[in-house]
UniProtKB/TrEMBL annotation:
Residues 21-41 are annotated as: Disordered. This is Janus family protein. The active site is at 84 (proton acceptor). Belongs to the janus family. The keyword Plastid does not apply. It comes from Skeletonema marinoi. Substrate binds at residue 55. One of its GO terms (biological process) is cell differentiation. The keyword Cell membrane does not apply.
Length: 159
């Protein structure tokens, strides 16, 4: 039987702290653009969805040497994440180390990926980060090319 985790005051405080740190980092990077020596160590996948039903976050970030000032969008879920911040926390340092700036957590929800039925359902919300734009998440998943042949849907219903 899987253990359910309910968002509590501590998790809300940790999510707010993470958001505040990203905001502070964003202001610092606006004043000090990254040097051209920032190493893009490897391609960070825009989509990472574990098989099953798990929490996900929608994150935007400006890629290194981005002359168009257009952010990339990331949709990541993580098996075993107790809270939405547990999905975001490992991704943020990877983005920073790869030279991404203006990293923003744009909300969260849940993603159900069922490989047997070739479906992905995006739904729900995050108490800590708010509801993600599920239509945008669906678009990112479909454009990633990782789930060709899957039916991807979204809804603002459920948790």
């Amino acid at each position: 039987m899987s253990e359910e985790y309910t968002t509590n005051a501590h998790d809300l405080a940790e999510a707010a702290k993470l958001q505040a740190q990203l905001e502070q980092d964003s202001h610092a990077s606006n004043n000090n653009p990254p040097s051209s020596s920032a190493q893009h160590q490897y391609r960070i996948p825009s989509v990472s969805i574990d098989n099953g039903a798990y929490k996900y976050v929608l994150i935007t970030a400006l890629p290194p040497n981005n002359s168009h000032n257009k952010p990339e969008v990331f949709v990541h879920s993580k098996r075993g994440a107790q809270y939405h911040r547990n999905v975001a926390e490992p991704l943020i340092p990877i983005l920073k180390q790869s030279g991404y700036t203006d990293i923003r957590i744009k909300g969260g929800g849940r993603i159900l990926r069922c490989d047997d039925d070739h479906i992905i359902k995006i739904f729900g919300y995050s108490y800590g980060f708010g509801q993600a734009d599920h239509a945008l998440a669906k678009d990112v998943v479909e454009k990633s090319g990782k789930f060709v042949g899957y039916t991807v849907s979204w809804s603002n219903d459920g948790y």
